[in-house]
Amino acid sequence: MSEVNKDVIDLVWGRPSGGGVSTSIFRRWSQGFVFSEYEQTALEQFEGGPCAVIAPVQAFLLKNILFSRESSNWRQLSEEEQRTALCSTLSEILESACAGPTSGFCLVTWAKGQSPKTSVLSKSLTASQTQDSSEAESSQPQQEPEPTALAAEDLGFEQFHSALHQRTVLSVADLREEVLSLHHSWRGCCGVLLFLYSVIITKGIENIRNEIQDPTEPLIDPIHGHGRVFLFLLCSQSLVNLLVTGHAVSNVWDGDRECSGMKLHGVHKQASVGFLTLMESLRYCKVGTFLKSPKFPIWILGSETHLSVFFTKELSLVGPESPSEQARRVFQSFDPEDNGFIPDSLLEDVMKALDLVSEPEYVGLVRNKLDPESLGIILLGPFLLEFFPDQDSGIPDSFPVLHYNGLKQSNHKEKVEYVEGTALVLGFEDPMVRTDDTPVKRCLQTKWPYIELLWTTNRSPSLN
Predict the structure, then answer these.
(1) CB 208 within 8 A of CB 10
(2) Which of 51, 87, 98, 443 is catalytic?
């Protein structure tokens, strides 16, 4: 497979019967990073599958556009601004994945003379122009072709891998320069795969295998083409975690856990953008604070088969933890099954962890108050009301929100555009306003149990 290590292919695609990936699956993944013509800061996804890469890139792209630019009109970008924003985002993710300061960064590109020569790149490109996309990118400004959704018809799985080349840069400055020079490649045929392979080789195959829970499980389902992240099994959550956190851990909880003598790796620090999943509302998993409460108010939302993005400019949503939020997190750390209660024998440990008065006599009084019927359990709600009554979390009662779904067919009239709305976040009391029960709302309720959503459109946005 040319210079691309076969281990990369096994890690990404597994070893499907017949020795290769089906034409239809590879075709789904052969698109580039293309901006919607209807929403200048939104990436478009043409078929199911590559959301596992596109959605995390979109989340970081929004972070950079919303919180790093001075312009208030963040939804309007020129072609040059799109180029700069995209390449800056790809560089940031590669920097996060880098195994160490001396290991350098790997960029997977087309080998000289091997890039597709059809309309995927340009209907008018000459043979000399296609020899090296980076040469075209660094030449004098010219009219950029519009990339199409899919690879050239004659570019199959084997041909793609035989046409690749690796280049290594050692410094962050060189990385950013090289990524910018390869902008044409990221936008064109197979740009998503070129970037994914770059991240994987930059991270290192062995490093990924040491972090992933089941190294025999491929990152991409060779049967359905999804990123195998959302199909009830979290063993390949690794793909999203790698792009979001730089670590290919297989779980979404905070820190590591022991299970039957085996260490299961989780997320070890607060992420820049967050992750919430419908699977938590169905009690298949529990997302930890590091993903649920990121540095910026942007969350990737996972359904059973797709990823979208929910975001807002309201920075107070990701401010420092309030005492009640800290108490909820600590309490839930003693409740790994997410039952909403703990055995009363753990009450003293929880109170100690929160630096509350934990003298045995006082703990006994609290236990009797919180468990008057001597059921042997302490419920989360009464515990929080006992120690943190009527505490203001600092979150506004309402704030504007937007939802992104890159799949054309999931958008109204197949136009990839943000859906605008207003979120209402209430407290422990029963909410006065009740909106429809949708997958988006159920997903968000895993972070804000009493959230209500009022969308400006006639239909709620789709998670799928």
Answers:
(1) no
(2) 51
> Of all residues in the chain, what percent are helix, strand and coil, respectively (each to 5)?
40, 15, 50
* Helix segments in 47-144, DSSP class H: 51-68, 79-97, 133-138
Query: Which residues, other chains included, contact 310 with Cβ-Cβ below 8 Å and sequence gap of 6+?
Result: 276, 298, 299, 301, 401, 402, 403, 404, 440, 443, 444
d(CA 303, CA 346): 34
106 annotated active-site: no
Q: What is the pLDDT of residue 275?
A: 97
Residues 419-440, mean pLDDT to the nearest whole number: 77
Radius of gyration over every alpha carbon of the chain, rounded to an integer in angstroms: 24
- For the CA atoms of 24, 25, 31, 36, the dihedral, rounded to the nearest 10 degrees, stands at 90
The residues, ordered by sequence, that sit 6+ positions from 152 with a Cβ below 8 Å of its Cβ are 116, 117, 118, 120, 189
Give the range with max mean pLDDT: 119-133, 367-381, 436-450. Answer: 367-381
- Select which of 226, 247, 265, 306 is catalytic: 306
Could you confirm whether 183 is annotated as catalytic?
no
What region, left, alpha or beta, does residue 104 occupy, with left being phi > 0 and alpha being psi -120 to 50 degrees? left
